[in-house]
Amino acid sequence: MSLNRTIAKYYLGTSIFSLGALGLWIPSGYSIGAVALLLGSLAIILLNGRPRLSFGQVMIIAAIAAYSLIWMADGIVRGNGVRDMDQASRFLFAVPVILAVSKVRPPLPLVWIGCGIGGFGALSIAAYQVYIEELPRASGFIGPEPFGNISSLLAGLSLLGAVWFYVQHGYRHYAVINFLGGGAALAALVLSGTRASWLAFIVMAGLIILSAWREMEDTRLPKFMCVVFLSLAALLSTLDSSIRDRVIETYADISGYSDNRVEPQSVGKRFELWKGSLILFLERPLLGWGNDAFGPEIQRLASINIVDENIGMPNHAHNEMIDALAKKGIVGFFFLVLVYFVPALFFLRLFLLAHGSDARILAASGFLLVTNFVFYGMAHAGLENNAGVMNYAFWLAVFAGCSHEGPRSVSRG
Asked: Is 348 left (phi over 0), alpha (psi -120 to 50) or beta?
């Protein structure tokens, strides 16, 4: 007995559509598509068997499984047991998705259009919170920083989806939806005030432009890029006060901290946390201090005036790599780097060597996913919250499963 491939294909496609479309504007929306993907993937593997994976796909599975097991083991030994295992275990749930998506390729239009719809949803909840509820920053249902992180991701994926739709003869009209959805997600990002994700999107914009340059004919590219930049300029001009206020605040924080004129504020406290976390790493370089000891140890440093006394009781270092060094030492840092470096290398290689727009844009999307989380992680901990780890793990599974190093085709619908 095996599951009908057409049913399996469209089930996976609908689940991935939900992962993007419902992610930010309903409570725990990102979990709906992820759970549906997991359940469907298990059924496909059980009924249709396992696929033959490429070496790169196997390495991605090994990297995320190793990261998950190391983090879970640390939670058992030095943390709160099952509670600390929860987030890391979600990487293991993404492994069946890689297998299923590699076995049965989902329709790409559903993948891309879901990201565009998700962008509209993100802007709707962001605009309501900022302009109706008069909150200082949009947060959705997950907090301003994770909301900005996922909004940035949806903006980038939506715009890459617009490129994909534009180069397909039968789907070109859908490019408008994805382009507008990408702009909506970008507006939601601005309203979140998440500065690290602003930087991440600037870097991702270069990747999107490079993808458009490779896929479009020379006569179409100038027109497309003019539309992109004029539209983004118009969008940002309507939100300039949000950007200006955050930039001024950042400059004042850095200036005051460097001149030692005032008590450290948001950015200054991050600098103090980085300093304190690196000191903790030097004290226990191999395995670090663990999650539970991190806050008290930072306070110990504050009590002897090594870091600012008003730093409080932090639960992370506001930098993912430094946080890993302080809490899990060189061992944890190594496996965290693997979670980003192995997929980045896999997708970059495919982007440079793949034949055909489908494979290149899928590879660019995977690389964009990693880029978004790496730059966000420069000031936050992207894999230390449910929304971040679910989106990274399951989107990674989707793009790694759809991508292949051999000459295999991808279903368009």
From this structure: alpha
Q: Would you call 196 helix, strand, or coil by DSSP? A: helix
Give the mean model confidence (pLDDT) for residues 194-221.
81
* pLDDT for 201 beyond 60: yes
Q: Is 182 helix (H, G, I), strand (E, B) or coil?
A: helix
373: nearest Cα among 145, 84, 180, 216: 145
Burial of 306 (0-12, 13-18, 19+ CB in 10 A): middle
Average pLDDT over every residue of 317-346: 95
Q: 3-class SS at 219?
A: coil
Tokens read off for 131:
């302009």
Is the CB of residue 375 less than 8 Å from the CB of residue 207? no
DSSP H helical ranges for 22-167: 29-48, 55-78, 82-103, 108-127, 144-167
Q: Among candidates 265, 260, 319, 263, which has minimal Cα distance to 294?
A: 319
Indicate the SS3 state at residue 409.
coil
The pTM of the full predicted model, rounded to 2 decimals, is 0.91
How many helices and strands, by DSSP H and E, does the chain display?
15, 0
Query: Residues 108, 197, 96, CA angle at the centre, nearest 5°?
Result: 40
Q: Of 87, 267, 118, 109, nearest to 189 (Cα)?
A: 118
Distance CA 1, CA 46 (A): 10
Task: Specify burial of residue 235 (Cβ count, 10 A radius: 0-12, 13-18, 19+).
Answer: middle
DSSP annotation of 140 reads: T
In whole angstroms, give the CA distance from residue 119 to residue 20: 8
Q: What is the dihedral of CA 61, 65, 67, 72, to 10 degrees?
A: 160
> Which amino acid type is present at position 319?
N
Q: Which two tokens stand for residue 404?
A: 């292949």
- Apex CA 353: angle with CA 351 and CA 356, to 5°? 75
Residue 113 pLDDT: 97
